[in-house]
Structures are given as C-alpha cells and as structure tokens.
Design brief:
Distance between the termini: 9 Å
Oligomer: single chain
Keywords: Membrane, Plasmid, Transmembrane, Transmembrane helix
Number of domains: 1
Number of strands: 0
Helix content: over 70%
Strand content: under 5%
Order of helices and strands: HH
C-alpha cells in the first residue's frame, strides 16, 4: 500500500464525518447527505484501486 492509498483511507472517514455533521446541523438534507457520502465513497474507491 502506497502513501496515496493510506491518505485516502485516512481522509475518507473524516469526509463522511463532515457530511454527517452538516446533515445534523440542518445544512444538508438527508438525500443530499446520502448522495455526497456515496459520491465520495465512489471517488475514493476509484482512486484507491487505480493507483
């Protein structure tokens, strides 16, 4: 596992946590939060497996 993959594994939970916090504060709707979380997971998976 290279440094970029370790970085992705570190940043992903923080990004999902930020989405959850924004949803709990009322900034994002539930569907918007779900879409943001799925999009970030998809992007991270793509970057992780193509490196």
């Amino acid at each position: 596992m290279n440094q970029a993959q370790i970085g992705l594994l570190t940043v992903t939970p923080l990004l999902i946590g930020m989405v959850v916090l924004l949803h709990r504060q009322g900034v994002m709707t539930r569907s918007g939060a779900a879409l943001a979380a799925l999009a970030s997971l998809g992007t991270v998976a793509w970057l992780f497996f193509t490196q």
